[in-house]
Amino acid sequence: MLLTAPEKRHAIAGGAFSLAGIVFFIGLAIVTLLAAGIESADGNPLTDPYLLRVLRFTLLQATLSTLLSVALAIPVARALARQPRFPGRLWLIRLMAVPMGLPVLIGALGLLGIWGRQGVLNQLLTGLGLAQPVSIYGLTGILLAHVFFNLPLAARLMLAGLERVPAEYWLMAGGLGMRPASVFRFIEWPVLRGLIPGIAGLIFMLCATSFTLVLILGGGPAATTLEVAIYQALRFDFDPGRAVALSLLQIVVTAAILGAMALLPAPDDHGLTAGRAVRRIDGTVPAAKLADSTLLLLATLFIGLPLASVVVTGLKADLLRLVSQAIFLQAALTSLTIALAAGILAVLISFAIIRARAAIAAERRKAPGLGALAFALSGTSSLVLLVPPIVLATGWFLALRLFGDPARFAALLIVAINALMALPFVIRVIEPAHAVHRRRTERLAASLGLQGLARLRLVDWPGLRKPLFTALSFAMALSLGDLGAVALFGSDSLVTLPWLVYSKLGSYRTNDADGLAFILGLICLLLTVAGTAGQGRHEDEGRRNDR
């Protein structure tokens, strides 16, 4: 990286300052929890029946959700890989990306529209004369919701792995006349076996830290996870001692999961290939085509029906009345302000960390502290994932009680927490683009003597504007749909769109909740589309220029 000595110092200082801010924000929350836990300790928390019950259910639902998501994703991924010309295949793959970018609250409402007591499925079952319809509340509903969100993620990751299998493998399989069972055993399973541990670890992490889905579908004390129990301990019972014990337990669980994920082996390389076009013959058999088509149709219905329910029920609501209400305008303005502030903060911190990493990597003679700083910067994403939002909010809630009502600082805390939660995703968007931009422009900028603001205005901003806006839009969409931090601090003076939807749902005004959820989903979708607008066109132009 051809930077002048002052530019390197500024880049490294910016990264160090950002890292210090993250460590301070997370560390203060953890220290406060530890201090409050020691102060309020009145026994061994490991012998508290309530804590043990909540921990047991958290691990149980996460384990079952992971097993179901992975087990069901395997046949879906295989069917997509075996049928490259399946009608609507591209749209099904795109449909699978929707739950991953959808606010969890909206997905939960969509599932209620299909599987709820008054949902389409239960109405159909009642019409057929069944006395006991399907109940979406409790463990069953939590598992169903987690599979809805995580099956598409697992299937897409598995499909990517299967599509990287060299064409020579399929050519040999066809020449040997291998049956589908043998193809799975000798070709597909070795690939999936290397991917499944990482996928399962990621899904387990997501399910163990699930908050919104369990809050809506939990169905009472018997189906409560650690994060929901923390929320209930502070919001309803105002029992800081129990909230602290639950928060520390959540940190231990999260750290154990992250540690286990770090020990998982990386997927093996599938071998060399001549780059031939992949031609699979195991999916051309009529029986295989029928089975795959049926499976993909069921997957489409499972994912698509709740999304369609959100649209249909949302359009049935009186949208004009909802958007003209003062409470909606207040919530929308608050949500957009928080999302914009959190997005900008996440982008600035990410950019500072990425520049610092690049500057340290370019140093030929590293000072003793630079290696440690580089290691710490690379572990920023793991540090952020270590403490879930509700635990961060709990720590800061207890810390700010010393200065009066913590609600006065609620907006600033929500901005900071949302920015931190978006940080791993923002870094993943910006870092590859920054590396490519640096390789393309650093020599030219150095030869022209461009430094500081001049380089930023003439070189860096035009080249990085697109990925920066993409990262900003993703961070804003994540912040807009978040219910974790605001659930603890939400009040009449601080109302966001997700909190407004949840409030309407809690007061049984489901029609208004459906309409507001539709509007929230539409805003998040527009943000995502705006962030990726023109991306395909620029990629096509780049490929044409490379030729």
- How widely separated are the two ends? 27 Å
Number of DSSP helices? 23
Strand content: under 5%
H/E topology pattern: HHHHHHHHHHHHHHHHHHHHHHH
Overall pLDDT score: 82
Taking all Cα atoms into account, the compactness measure Rg is 25 Å
Detailed description of the structure:
By secondary structure, the chain is mostly helical. It has 23 helices and no strands. The longest helix is centred in the C-terminal third of the chain and has 39 residues, at 410-448. The chain is globular. Residues 536-547 have low confidence and may be disordered.
Defining traits:
547 residues, mainly alpha, 23 helices, disordered C terminus
Short recap of the structure:
By secondary structure, the chain is mainly α. It has helices at residues 5-40, 49-82, 89-101, 104-115, 120-127, 139-163, 167-176, 180-208, 212-217, 226-235, 240-263, 286-316, 319-324, 326-362, 368-378, 380-386, 389-400, 410-448, 452-480, 484-489, 497-506, 510-532, 535-546.
Topology of this structure?
Elements: H1 5-40, H2 49-82, H3 89-101, H4 104-115, H5 120-127, H6 139-163, H7 167-176, H8 180-208, H9 212-217, H10 226-235, H11 240-263, H12 286-316, H13 319-324, H14 326-362, H15 368-378, H16 380-386, H17 389-400, H18 410-448, H19 452-480, H20 484-489, H21 497-506, H22 510-532, H23 535-546
